[in-house]
Amino acid sequence: MKTGFLWHEYFAWHSFGTVSGSIPAGGFVEPGAPFENEQTKRRLRNLLEVSGLLDDLSILPTRLATDEELLRVHTVDYLEKLKRLSNAGIGDAGRGALVGKGSFEIAQRAAGACIVAADAVYDRVVRNAYVLCRPPGHHAERDCGIGFCLLANASIATEHLRKARGVKRIALVDWDVHHGNGAQSIFYDDPDVLTISIHQDRLFRSGSIEERGVGDGLGASLNIPLPAGSGHEAYVAAIERVVVPALTRFQPEMIIVPSGFDASVFDPLGRQMAGSETFRMMTRLLMSAADRLCEGRLMMTHEGGYSETYVPWCGLAVLEEMSGIKTEAQDPYLGWFGLIGGHELKPHENEVLIQAAALVDQIPRPGK
Fold first, then answer.
1. Over the stretch 47-72, which tens digit does the pLDDT of each residue have?
2. Regarding beta strands 170-174 and 193-200, do their DSSP bridges make them parallel or antiparallel, or are they unpaired?
3. Is 74 a catalytic residue?
């Protein structure tokens, strides 16, 4: 089976007015490009084409998620607010979740694409799938958008699988540099959805190692807040020593990865040091776990990543690994990347992994 791939030109048309980075322009703030823009995604799609990999992927259709599908996660009031702002062509859906004309329909398509991918992977139509969508979703909570995110794409796909397809246990492994607060808040009391977030410590307002879930969901939220400056070895060790054992204990029927590339060494919004080979190795390890635990059922949905030059190379590495096809395109930054020190696992990073690994035994097991 091939790797599924989903993209639609409308994803590049999400636009939310004149800003500089993430600040509305005006006064002393000169207009400029927003951090979250179409170029990183479009350039990734273009690299897939010129490398030849796109020809070997199974292109899946996108569709709009229905209100019924969205309401499994979001509140009625929030969806109505999103629609109003989208029709008006301007506004903030929460905290830094800017909306432009038609943004709601584009966000509907992003959520719908994730549902399509989830079905295709679960039904074994494709081996695995990558959804290159926009706007992102992993910060969106039930009743508000946060940090560029309007609809909780991965959580919507999760609830579709559970409510419409009868899937019992799903794990979300978020490797965006910012904390995956959206899924954590949505499933915080749910023992049948494991939310794991590997992120830069204190880069976001939540994500401490003490946040572990409540009630029946106690233990089903697992945070790995890596210190700023963490490199290749820290990220790979986080997967090997914490994430894979956590997945093994939880026994998911499907793994969903909110895939952000803002932990890369070139990203303007993070201070981590991952490279394309870091993301390749993390993908390899998760695929191996998925093969062993849930017949390879793994899908990824695109989240952050704000380096126009480097996001495409991180994405190519992930999709090469997912598809099992190595193209002739070589990351031109690997030589420069190798000259930077600090990629080894450092003692203060190792201490975080020790603390996180100690929580694995508290993850709810099937039937508990």
1. 999 999 999 999 999 999 999 999 99
2. parallel
3. no
